[in-house]
Write a structure and sequence with these properties.
The chain is α/β, with parallel strands linked by helices and 537 residues long. It has a domain at 115-174: Alpha-Beta Complex (Oligo-1,6-glucosidase, domain 2). The protein has helices at 36-41, 43-49, 84-96, 115-122, 189-205, 249-261, 278-282, 296-300, 305-319, 338-341, 345-361, 390-394, 439-443, 449-464, and strands at residues 16-20, 53-56, 100-105, 135-136, 159-163, 169-174, 209-212, 268-271, 292-293, 327-329, 365-369, 472-473, 480-485, 489-494, 510-514, 528-533. The strands form three sheets. Strands 9-8-7-3-2-1-11-10 form an eight-stranded parallel beta sheet. A five-stranded antiparallel beta sheet has the order 12-13-14-16-15, covered by helices on one side. Strands 4-6-5 form a three-stranded antiparallel beta sheet, with no helix packed on it. Helix 5 (189-205) runs parallel beside helix 6 and helix 11 runs parallel beside helix 14 (449-464). The protein is globular, with a radius of gyration of 24 Å. The mean pLDDT is 96. The chain binds alpha-D-glucopyranose (GLC). Alpha-D-glucopyranose is lined by residues 66, 69, 106, 177, 213-214, 272, 333-334.
Length: 537
């Protein structure tokens, strides 16, 4: 029996984890920003949806320059989101409903408002306070050129110059993201010790695990060399990079794994690492490192049968030998929502329905980003003045940034904020078309996206999750993905724009769920997926 088929297998091997983007999920106090009490009040939605766990994006005290990924205090709750008491109450309620909860850990950088960075600014070059970050002298006779040519992921250079306490122009510090997110120096023992203590703080409170933010960025080439110009572009990192995916990061994760393993109750880590190669990604989930990693190869695959199959095979193939389960994800708070990526409008929504059944039929775990169960699309027409993602300003609008996938959720009602909170306020405006997509409306409609997700998650527990981990591909026409798992489950996805017949060996099987109605002759219309129960042979 494989690990996933074993009912005693750890929860994270096949969990469906729902991503709560805290600012935009539910607002209890009416200030237009989501909060922990809001999440608590909507836990029933997650229970009814049928997910196993939730992941909360950062809710720690933060100036919110990067939506909370600029953490000023890792052991508290930002007053905008509530208190530690609210966190404990949310965790207790989630556990009471059988939902696990993981939190976000941001180890690559802190906020520039973190006490450590303030102390570094007040201390002289060469001090222990500066040694926690990456301070360097500038180049050029007056030191007014940055130490190297590295770029910020949000646009512009990756170095900012400080003014020394005596008022003179001073050293530079590295920030791979916004200037308000100075990078930590992970060769520094104090940094390592501090993060182990932060892990313990949340593990002691009872969290079930951590999502590790930019897990591939912590280690830097100590020489801080220039990057050849052709490698400066943004996008998933390739091997041999001076600040991404360096071998030294793995020592950090081995230490964390030992730490988490000493706690009872299957605590787990998921790595956020945007890498070009699935083989390199697999190194993060070796048996003594992190448990799982987000599968951005699947997320980035276009809606095309060959590309999707290639991503699935490469994922499963690269993990062989690690023992780690694959994971699957279609959207998150950093990318254009998949309804829009897949073409938008009715076509995008139809493909998104089929994609959900594909994702949830695959072995391992899956991530659902809040609002995808409602079929929300990217909000592409936000006014410049309301955009908050630093990418927008730092690229002077060339990159619209990630606000369009972060618009607060519609829950119910006729007027904004559509039940997001008790007032009309929402920190980003919601499109009027979301009235129809509100959760309460969809719950009452059997053909809605929400009803599809609920049915799929219920059937996944019964039919899909107990199947073994292997995917056995079947011969199907061009543009069709067809596979079996275990003795009695099959999934067929017609990715093409024309109808397709079911593979011959599935003709007698019974349909248990379809993303859209099948044709009367039993064929699959364009952009339709179906789950089948097959007689065991
Ligand atoms: C991760 C987060 C993203 C954030 C960045 C910097 O990629 O998902 O939202 O901006 O890290 O912390």
């Amino acid at each position: 029996m494989s690990a996933a088929a074993d009912p005693r297998a750890p929860w994270w091997r096949r969990a469906v984890i729902y991503q709560v983007y805290v600012r935009s999920f539910a607002d209890a106090d009416g200030d237009g920003v989501g909060d922990l009490a809001g999440i608590r009040s909507r836990l029933a939605h997650l229970r009814d949806l049928g997910v196993d766990a939730l992941w909360l994006t950062p809710f720690y005290p933060s100036p919110q320059v990067d939506g909370g990924y600029d953490v000023a205090d890792h052991r508290d709750v930002d007053p905008r989101f509530g208190t530690l008491g609210d966190f404990d109450a949310l965790l207790a309620d989630a556990h009471g409903l059988g939902l696990r909860l993981i939190v976000d850990l941001v180890p690559n950088h802190t906020s520039s408002e973190h006490p450590w960075f303030r102390a570094a600014l007040a201390a002289p070059p060469g001090s222990p306070e500066r040694a926690r970050y990456l301070f360097r002298d500038g180049r050029g006779p007056r030191g007014d050129e940055p130490p190297n040519n590295w770029r910020s992921r949000f646009g512009g250079g990756a170095w900012a110059r400080v003014t020394e306490p005596d008022g003179a122009p001073g050293q530079w510090y590295l920030h791979l993201f916004a200037p308000e997110q100075p990078d930590l120096d992970w060769t520094n023992g104090e940094v390592r010790g501090e993060y182990e203590s932060i892990l313990r703080f949340w593990l002691d409170r009872g969290v079930d695990g951590f999502r590790v933010d930019v897990a591939h960025a912590l280690a830097k080439d100590p020489d801080l060399p220039d990057i050849p110009p052709e490698r400066l572009r943004r996008g998933p990192a390739a091997e041999g990079h001076p600040h991404f995916d360096r071998d030294e990061v793995h020592d950090v994760y081995r230490a964390w794994r030992r730490l988490a393993d000493a706690y009872p109750g299957e605590r787990s880590f998921v790595a956020e690492a945007w890498l070009q190669s699935p083989q390199r990604l697999a190194r993060y989930v070796r048996p003594d490192e992190l448990h799982t990693a987000f599968n951005f190869h699947f997320l980035l695959a276009p809606w095309a049968a060959g590309a999707l199959r290639q991503a699935i095979d490469a994922t499963i193939g690269s993990l062989a030998g690690t023992g780690a389960p694959p994971t699957w994800v279609l959207s998150n708070h950093d990318v254009t929502r998949h309804v829009t990526r897949y073409g938008g409008g009715a076509l995008g929504a139809r493909r998104a329905r089929a994609a959900a059944l594909l994702m949830l039929a695959l072995p391992g775990g899956a991530y659902v980003y809040q609002g995808e169960e409602l079929g929300l699309h990217e909000v592409e027409d936000l006014a410049d003045e309301v955009r908050q993602d630093p990418t927008f300003a730092r690229t002077e609008g060339a990159d619209p940034g990630r606000d369009g996938c972060r618009v607060p959720l519609p829950w119910s009602g006729e007027e904004p904020s559509y039940g997001f909170g008790p007032s009309a306020a929402s920190w980003l405006p919601q499109p009027g078309s979301w009235r129809e997509l509100a959760a309460a409306r969809q719950a009452a409609r059997p053909a809605s996206m929400l009803s599809l997700y609920r049915a799929a998650l219920r059937l996944r527990r019964e039919l899909v999750a107990p199947a073994d981990e292997a995917v056995r591909w079947l011969d199907a026409g061009d543009g069709v993905l067809a596979f079996r798992r275990g003795p009695s489950f099959a999934c067929v996805v017609n990715v093409a724009d024309e109808p397709a017949a079911l593979p011959a060996e599935l003709l007698g099987a019974s349909v248990v769920l379809a993303s859209d109605a099948l044709a009367v002759d039993g064929s699959l219309p364009a952009a339709t997926a179906v789950w089948l129960a097959v007689e065991a042979s």
